[in-house]
Amino acid sequence: MRGKIAFQGEPGAYSHQACRQARPEMEPMPCRTFEDAMEAVRQGKADLAMLPVENSTYGRVADMHSLLPQSGLHIIDEAFVRVHISLLGIPGTKIADIRQAMSHTVLLGQCRDFLRAHGIQSLTGADTAGSAMKIAEMGDPAIGALASELAGEIYGLDVLAKEIEDQQNNTTRFLVMSRELDLTRRGEAGMITTFMFRVRNIPAALYKAMGGFATNGVNMTKLESYMVNGSFTATQFYADVEGHPEDRNVQLAFDELRYFTTEMSLVGVYPADSRRH
Length: 277
Fold this sequence. Notes:
The protein has helices at residues 14-22, 34-42, 62-67, 105-108, 112-117, 128-138, 149-155, 205-215, 248-259, and strands at residues 4-8, 27-31, 48-55, 59-60, 74-82, 86-89, 100-103, 121-124, 143-147, 158-161, 171-178, 191-199, 220-228, 231-242, 261-271. With 277 residues, it is α/β, with parallel strands linked by helices.
């Protein structure tokens, strides 16, 4: 019996595409929200969750970065998915017929040039595949959807234009989340360690905490800050570094980090995707 991997959105969403690409042996499980996808894993209804965190054109997925720190789940893999965006319409529609295009706000932001060039107004939908499904139900030739070709196939829509994204390297990074932390694997393209920490309330604490990574030659690829419980004085940080916690240089950097922090926890240790670089 194959396991289940939860994702946010309707069948045909880019997260669905990511599931098929990264875990083709698993059964994709659509969920209404990111929280629902995480909760499905926490409750054991799904084995894994596929969650988008950032896009090369639009930037970070804001909801995810606020949800990840408190999810209670662990990252066991990352997947970089090339996002090809199509303009979809009801059968028989032409581009000239389209006056409005519906999609998730993140996807709308990745097609601004195309929409402007064709005089098409943006309509915000709950998600990409859900927008395609709604357009199919509405049957209005003046309203199209921005989504994947997979969504067009699922909901019986025509592809009016392909690869309309503004940036030709348009890529979304997804994280594969699990209930358990896995420290056993090593990746051919290296390892990524994701962790969270809160610095002590002393002058230059963050500067000093980061010094150990520089002196030990550990490359930090991400550093995000978050408010804690709405407080302007309590700040939590989310970071990615290249390497494994068992690597000597990472161990030394973490030893120094702990000296200047009040808490620190591992969120994930996972092989770097070969498309990362």
